[in-house]
């Protein structure tokens, strides 16, 4: 039976860069040959969620949301638009960070769809955050003497938004790699505006848990942290703020190792992609859990 991977991402009418990571990770996975077909789909761009399955010939589809948290998009919008009529969030049995997968039948195409939890709550995202810190500093051993801030949007509308950030901050803290690890937010306490108040370390790596670089990661957060007065002037990496060197990485979703998390989601749902996972990890210079 032929197998396909469909990646579901938000996209944007306003920011052309929003879809770039999605296409990049799809290309990486396509090159492994792990699936007969790999398709990108979007909520705010073409090709749209609603038409995605009709472009896929395979009978069996692994559907992976390129979203950070479990909530409105992953529990309502995507299942509705893909017409997964049997869907119920209870099928994931999740507490907000532990979604796995559910096997459903697409209402209009009859395809078997393995609907996976979002990339953002998968355990291997912790490795991508660490890899992002390595990429930003150029130091594969980064950790000792450094603090790490994992930054999320935070919102009262979706409590799981903060849960995902805190989940990975806790997992990375347990690795004992960095001297300090802190979850920070844009719209709730503790706020990223005050990043230097939460660290004693002279060096702080700041990794925003966003899929793509856009308004928040390229304008709001740098200005809020004091890296610059006007984002259009740019900033140095590192940039000194209140006596600390801030290593700001930009969106975690642009890290090449994100393709691994997409594959891990599919693997957890039953796809035979272990060789592809090893290939992607090898190409990105990452090794297994927490290194």
TrEMBL record:
InterPro entries: CbiX-like, Sirohydro_Cobaltochel/CbiX
Phylogenetic classification of the source organism: Archaea, Methanobacteriati, Methanobacteriota, Stenosarchaea group, Halobacteria
Name recorded for this polypeptide: Sirohydrochlorin cobaltochelatase
Database matches in NCBIfam families: PRK02395.1-1 (NF002670)
Pfam families: CbiX
Keywords: Cobalamin biosynthesis, Cobalt, Lyase, Metal-binding
